Amino acid sequence: MQFIIISGLSGAGKSKAASDLEDLGFYCVDNMPAEMIPQFASLCLATKGRFEKVALVTDVRSSMTFDSLFQSLDRLDEMHLEYSIFFIEASTEVIIKRFKETRRLHPLMRDGTPVLQAVERERQLLEPVRTRASAIIDTTNLSTGKLRGKLIDLVAGGVRERAMHVTVLSFGFKYGLPLDADLVFDVRFLPNPYYIPELKTQTGLDEPVRNFIFQYQQTKDFLEKTEDLLTFLLPNYVDEGKTDLVIAVGCTGGQHRSACIAKELYDFISRRGYCANLSHRDMNRSRG
């Protein structure tokens, strides 16, 4: 079981980190009292695999000291449960700016403490937790996408490609553009098998149609250049935290050229380790 404890400075991005981990399949609990962590871990273990990935957020809202947290961590050690502590922090200036922009009070301002003193006091309180952290993430200069990318690096076991799902979709321009497309490739410049009588009623998934399309050098050049572009784009989309990418390939009717090229791109993307699926929106509608 992956068991992660998220702690750190208020306003640094703990809740965002938790929501990102939730998107990555973790069961997340915010503001978990430290004393309850061992009992919660026991419940998760008792489900026999139902909760394989768990993330808990604990911070100064739960306790002004962290003796109970460290006692709970000792209990987890006794249970032989492996866990990680992700400590989220940011510069004092950035944290103050974030609280000003959201018009929220820092948790340590309830007694009238000025925000600057509250942030510095929290930093001192959390120092013992920081020293025990498995990973320290400074969000001062991180976009939300970059934060997600760092979390993927930490929890995905090095298989970062699995964090983004890619849909490759063929379509016919005469039926309109797919509304959810992120990238659109127009292959209407390729020779059209529709005008070959024996190929007209077949599709781009049939070998005779594929052979016809790939006998032309422009098809091979287009595929090579597009694969080169995707080799550059896909990891950058992952770095920015994109979870779903729709690549649309269009020809006139969506039956021949687009279906053939979409299948080639799907195979290429799958070989590179990405979760992908292939869909042909208009192939059957155009057939015949």
Topology overview:
Elements: E1 2-8, H1 14-23, E2 27-29, H2 37-46, E3 53-57, H3 67-78, E4 84-89, H4 92-102, H5 115-131, E5 135-138, H6 144-155, E6 165-172, E7 183-186, H7 197-200, H8 207-213, H9 217-239, E8 244-251, H10 257-271, E9 275-280, H11 283-286
Provide a descriptive summary of the structure in words.
The relative contact order is 0.14. With 288 residues, the chain is α/β, with parallel strands linked by helices. The model has no long low-confidence stretch (mean pLDDT 89). Helix content is 43%, strand content 18%. Helix 1 crosses helix 6 and helix 9 (217-239) crosses helix 10 (257-271). The protein is elongated and about 80 Å long. The strands form two sheets. A five-stranded parallel sheet has the order 2-3-1-4-5, with helices on both faces. A four-stranded parallel sheet has the order 7-8-6-9. It has helices spanning 14-23, 37-46, 67-78, 92-102, 115-131, 144-155, 197-200, 207-213, 217-239, 257-271, 283-286; strands at residues 2-8, 27-29, 53-57, 84-89, 135-138, 165-172, 183-186, 244-251, 275-280.
